[in-house]
Amino acid sequence: MFKHYVISFVVIAAFILAVCCYSPSGPITNLSAQTPEMFAVKVLLNESVTKISFNARGDYRVADPEKLTVINEIQKPDFITIVVDGNCIKAGFKKYNSRHLVFQPAVDTPFAINDNQQFHGNLELIVNPDNKTLMVINSLSLEDYLAGVVASEMPSYWETEALKAQAIAARTYVLYIKSKHGKNRPWDVKATQANQVYKGMRAETMRTNDAITATAGLVLNCQIENWDIFPTYYSSVCGGHTEDTVNVFGDEFFPLQGVDCPWCRYNTKPSLFYWPDAAFDKQTVNDNIFARYPSLRELGTINKIEPAKESKYAGGLSRIISVKLIGSTGKVGYLRGEDLRLAVDPTGAKIQSTICTIISMKDEFLFIAGKGFGHGVGMCQYGAREMARQGKTYKEILDFYYPGTRFKKLY
Hints:
Helices cover 26% and strands 31% of the residues. It is α+β, with helices and mostly antiparallel strands. It has 3 domains: 41-140, no CATH class; 144-268 and 375-409, no CATH class; 271-371, no CATH class. Strand 20 (318-327) and strand 21 (332-336) form a beta hairpin. The radius of gyration is 24 Å and the shape is globular. The protein starts with a helix and ends with a strand. Mean pLDDT is 90; it is low at 1-29.
């Protein structure tokens, strides 16, 4: 009888656990086991906060990476507030004699910060030079990082081959940025569109994780001096033709030359492919440009903006590469088209691309006849989706948008 009750209890408990853990997007797996430690990624979540809440889901340790010591042995799950106190870090009621701490949950145990945002890996905190604020970093395995990126950058219901292409592009990009810039700072990439959008565990779905698993360790190489990774840029909608990276970001890589894209026009909703006209008053435009580029204040008031260089393609398609700014002082200045776009409209939601016409009015600037969404370099995501819908594989998609590349399995 007792044995019968025990078995029943176990079955009921298992059922309750299964129900409580059910997600409509399917079970989420931890991908960290697939990634060698040398490919760990440090993601900047926030550059400057006065405090942060930390909620461990299981046991954790606190370590000082600069002193290479574990300050506190196993700590029990708890919710604590972390602040700067006397130029050091204070976590809960305990003050640490350190400006750099790593909170290390047990393996495969997530942690949460602030409004219950959950993350894999470790939480790393550094006191900023102002001695008042903290830099917040999530250090984790590359594959777990991708789990928070792929579904943030591409809808998880899209075709599997498009998701695989996105996973490989995102993996290659972050490894390039890490190798290029990570050595000079305590983090590798930002969690925003400045690099790749990363939302932690809340973004994960079964479909995107499956795409990551299916391509684990796979990256793209191009011939520089030897075959190596390169910045596999991508954007939402190219508008009919991708752009040479040298015209947008200033770097030169053979696979990042513009290609004619007949794909994205077939499945992009009209408001993305043909974006609405946008108007900005001149004062706002001047303030936004001068805030980002103070040296241009010598222009006085920017009265006119006109294209200085354009890429012209078949069918009348034209992308602004650089602009000439004409000021009230008689002086002129120049900006890349993409720099102007994001200076005037930092969200990128109104001036969706540089495929447009700029009209200088008396009191405002008009951005009209716009097409596409994003910088237009590398893979066109809506184009990748259409290729997948028409039966193309992830290899064919990536070969199309990054011609002359090779696939390499890192692990």
